[in-house]
Amino acid sequence: MKSKKRAKRVGVFGKALALLPVSCVLLYPLYLATQLDTVFETYASPALPKAFDGLRIAFVSDIHYGSLFMENRVRELVKRVNALEADIVLLGGDYGEDSEGAIRFFDLHPGFHGKFAVLGTVGNHDRTLPESNFPKLLKRMAQEGVIPVVNDVWTLEKDGRTLAFASIDDYFNGAPDFEWVAKLCREADFTMFFPHNPDALPETYSLSNQLFYQLALCGHTHGGQVSILGHAIKSSSDYGDRFLSGWYRENGMDILVSNGVGTSGLPVRLGARPQIHLITLKTADTEQSTISRQINKGSK
Ligand SMILES: [Fe+2]
């Protein structure tokens, strides 16, 4: 009788143990989506004029403010970004889940701060219908101190040299004007191109002025959001895993694709931790650019 009771107890305990990994597997993606890493990138390029050596750029993409990323998390995010004391803050788009949500994001008065400027482009979620929301969004961005860079270029001048920050309208849902943006960058000594979607990049390779930028910063893919062994379960890119996450070099240009901050569809992530970036630009004596990164894992 006694041994039967023990056997029963072991049986219940064993069953609980067997269930634990299952619940962990189910809960871990929810937990991961609540994390936020800061990735410190040092990008050294022989093409960068000495005037901009040491410039620090914060890059933040795919916030997806809404039911999956609420106001308290936006406040925490802005605090984290502003604490980096970047010279320029670049916002990579997808502020909300749709164009209404993107406008509501700026209605929060998020308060991003950069020493010289806060620049923002737009993503596919920001460019949903009605079309009349687009000018409203650009206006709200400007009112909140975020300079909209959409089929446009913003430049920083120092010691007679020009650093350009260029972007297009969203590649999927907008009207990107590559030729126009390339033209605007013609006089720049170094150009950072930050379209929301890295799928836009191959189209620039065939432009008449194909080398109009040296460094591209993109979001959109969310690192796959749910990725296993470097493969997205469901890719948001027409190129599959070609621009999944991290650094790439194509056609002479360096490309950084961010995992972004928020989530879309479901509040889950796997193999793609949420992240923001602080990129320090360096002038290099090397023939090719070099990149080093240090990841500070965070909890919010
Ligand atoms: Fe996104």
What does this structure look like?
It is a single chain. With 300 residues, the protein is an alpha/beta fold. 25% of the residues lie in helices and 25% in strands. The chain has a 7-stranded mixed beta sheet with strand order 5-4-3-2-14-1-15. A 6-stranded mixed beta sheet has the order 6-7-8-9-13-12, covered by helices on one side. Strand 6 and strand 7 form a beta hairpin. Helix 3 packs parallel to helix 4. The protein is globular. Fe (ii) ion binds next to loops.
Give the topology.
Layout: H1 2-32, E1 37-45, E2 56-60, H2 71-83, E3 88-91, H3 99-107, E4 117-120, H4 133-143, E5 147-148, E6 152-158, E7 161-167, H5 178-184, E8 190-193, H6 201-204, E9 215-218, E10 227-228, E11 231-232, E12 246-250, E13 253-257, E14 275-283, E15 290-296
Parallel strand pairs: 1-14, 2-3, 3-4, 4-5, 7-8, 8-9, 9-13
Antiparallel strand pairs: 1-15, 2-14, 6-7, 10-11, 12-13
Helix pairs in contact: 3-4
The site of fe (ii) ion (FE2) has 9 residues, from loops.
Query: Which spans of ≥5 residues are poorly predicted at pLDDT below 50?
Result: none
Spatial strand order of the main sheet:
5-4-3-2-14-1-15
* Percent range for β-strand residues: 25-35%
Rg of Cα set: 22 Å
Mean pLDDT: 93
List bound small molecules: fe (ii) ion
Shape: globular
The percent of residues in helical segments reads 25-40%
Largest sheet: 7 strands, mixed
**Counting H and I runs of at least 4 residues, what is the number of helices?**
6
Intertermini distance: 52 Å
Number of strands: 15
List SSEs in N-to-C order: HEEHEHEHEEEHEHEEEEEEE
| Estimated structural class | alpha/beta
